[in-house]
Amino acid sequence: MTRIETTHDGLVRIIGMLEAGALASALQAAGDRPARLDLLQVFAAEGGAVRLLAGLPLDRVALVACPPWLEAWIRRERRTEAGTLPADEARERAPEARERAPEARERAPEARVPPRRRGGAGRTGGGAALAFLCALLTGLPAVRAAEPAEAVETAEPAEAAEPAEAVEPVEPGKHHDRLFRFEFDNDTFMDSDDAFSAGWSLQLHAAAKDAWTGPIGRTLGRLPGLGDDGAGGRIVRRGLVVTQSIFTPNDVTIAEPQPEDVPWAGILALSASWSSFDERRLGALQVTIGCLGPCSGAEDVQKFVHEDMNRGDPPRGWHNQLEQQWVANVVYGRAWKILPTPKAARGAGRAWSQDLAGGFEAGLGNLATFADAFVGWRFGWNVPRGFTNLPDPAGIGIAVDPVLPDAPSAHGWRIYGTLTARTTYMAHHVVAEGGATESGPDHPGLEYVRPQFEVIAGVHVGRGRVELSVTHYRYFGEEPLLGVGVSPDWVALALDVRY
Q1: d(Cα 406, Cα 347) in Å, to the nearest integer?
Q2: What pLDDT, on the 0 to 100 scale, is given for residue 321?
Q3: How far apart are CA 212 and CA 297, in angstroms?
Q4: What are the structural domain ranges in the chain?
Q5: Is 0.90 topped by the overall pTM?
Q6: What does the alpha-carbon distance between residue 281 and residue 235 come to, in Å, rounded to a whole number?
Q7: For residues 363 and 329, is the Cβ–Cβ distance under 8 A?
Q8: Residues near 483 by Cβ (< 8 Å), separated by ≥ 6?
Q9: Average pLDDT rounded to a whole number, residues 470-485
Q10: How far is residue 174's CA from residue 178's CA, in Å, rounded to a whole number?
Q11: Confidence band for 398, pLDDT divided at 50, 70 and 90
Q12: Does domain 179-498 have CATH number 3.40.50.150?
């Protein structure tokens, strides 16, 4: 939601999303005087609104306060349209301009920005730009001068304006949009120490971009669901993940082989993920390579926790772990909003909101081959715009940062819940298949539960750039996959820090 405040001295303060409708209302409220704008509390912007603002002459608008990322964006647009963008940067932005061309041709003639005349400072007169804005938003009521700091909500923008979901990402490093995530998974929170016994992951997710760059990104952008729609469309992110998973039988104090239970095994994996999304849809791809066996370091980690830290019974059967082998898989996923967040609740601090999304994932490889379908509900106060991230083990699910960029200081506390129902058909999992062990005899494979149903519930609490999450996995069925001991349930703790 966008909010406009008009002070007694004529200063217009725009809070939230910078939209073309809000910009036109501010100019209408100023009348014949130059519009004095305070944009310091703008946390995201439509590409069209920024281009319109960049096209206004200095004698028509004055930026009293503006965040650095938005100021740099406006300056870049002015340089691009004036033809003064450096050659190397212009070449980098050329594919993006070509992608925008079809979209621009489809717009109505009155929704096109008049060409900029050369000469002087390279800016057009204010009359043409103002006339364009008024024509673009014909029928929108002007904002009346109000008492100091009185908030007035803008009307819905006309269809010619770009949709509110089309968010141009902020400049990397200036908006704290990169993400570091640490996840710790363990079933001891459920009074058991078997099957998927423990795991952790360290994740780095890059800042959101408005378009794919580089040969790999542009190639992936051709896959269904991973396109970026050009400037002002879906945003894109890259991620890098290191994760370790530990699997053990129910009784870790038994040194002899336990062929009737889960094999001793560990996986150390490196994953790279790519995602493209907006408020309505998400597409993601993850490639994982890793090592199963002694190379995973699972034995050393569990013995350190259980013996050196005295956090459990000494594990005595690691000489029976599955022998070493390389593993890999590719996971592809899509998600769509079934019931999107109401526009009135987007970006509104201290607001209750909810949404419902559904989707699927499919994985292929010797690490795991599977297909799943899910429905997820998010509800609470200040629910982030975007989708839910599930802290799945390596090779199952996709590690992404599916949150649209917001200014960390834009809201107060975020307290919300997630509830996901998922059904999975597991065709192959390297641990469930068993096989040769370090001690010699083969471990028999486990019987798969097909399909397997699970409910995943999470509680998330955050403020500013930090968020803590607790997620509980609850499996259903007589013998859920990789869970034949006391309890197949497990809990994941996650710490998110934006920087």
Answers
A1: 8
A2: 95
A3: 36
A4: 2-164, 179-498
A5: no
A6: 11
A7: yes
A8: 194, 195, 196, 262, 475, 489
A9: 67
A10: 10
A11: very high
A12: no
